[in-house]
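call fold target=FMN phosphatase YigB (HAD superfamily)
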Amino acid sequence: MTPTPLQQVIPKIKSCNLLPIVVFDLDDTLYSTARRNLIIIQNFAADQGDKYPDFAAIASSITLKDMNWSVSLALTNAGLDPKSPSLAAFLIYWGNTFFTNDYVQLDLPNPGAVAFANACHDAGAMIFYLTGRHEGDPSLNNGMGQGTTLSFTERGFPYWQGRCELNLKINKSEKDVDYKNRVITSINSLKGEVIATFDNEPANSVLYSQKFPNALNFWMKTTWNPDDKAPTDNLLIITDFLDWNIESA
């Protein structure tokens, strides 16, 4: 049986004569952000439900499966009137909570992500976490770095064993594709070989396919910015990491 592209990653790591590197995005790639969004919705309803009963009614029935890239779209698809005053108030609340250490720890790994990331590391790869999350000021607890590293530990992702690097934005407002394009210089400075890349945003995946044409470049087709119209025809597409182990296939 011919191995799938995902099943080719571990053998390619093991046969690499240079430092093998695997690049992972986090939000909606290794992790699902659905739980973070859902709990923010529920917490806002608990805090402001008396003022916005229409929002509270939606929050009482909305589920993880209703979440998507746009939290406001998830709410309106679930029945909230787009003109409801609650929506603007909620989006302010969401903006003050979603990008924080405390809430980022609520994310759950996507299926197979922990096992696959560890298998890559155990096979000898450097795990290069390249995420759009921002660093913030640790003294003010207004970033996502501390929450991310705690989540790595709690969820079982490789991080503290060496050959792992976490890259966070300094400028929160910088576009992801511009930020990741800059960090590629750091990846190249390692003088290794990028074996595979994984990202849920098409533009980022296309960038990797251009910069690392010999790598296995995967578009994680979970949820993504609907304004991202980058072509995905030449990308490898997966929706989870369950199919990574050729020995169990």
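return ok
The beta strands are 20-24, 31-32, 108-109, 126-134, 164-169, 193-199, 216-220, 236-238. The chain has a mean pLDDT of 95.
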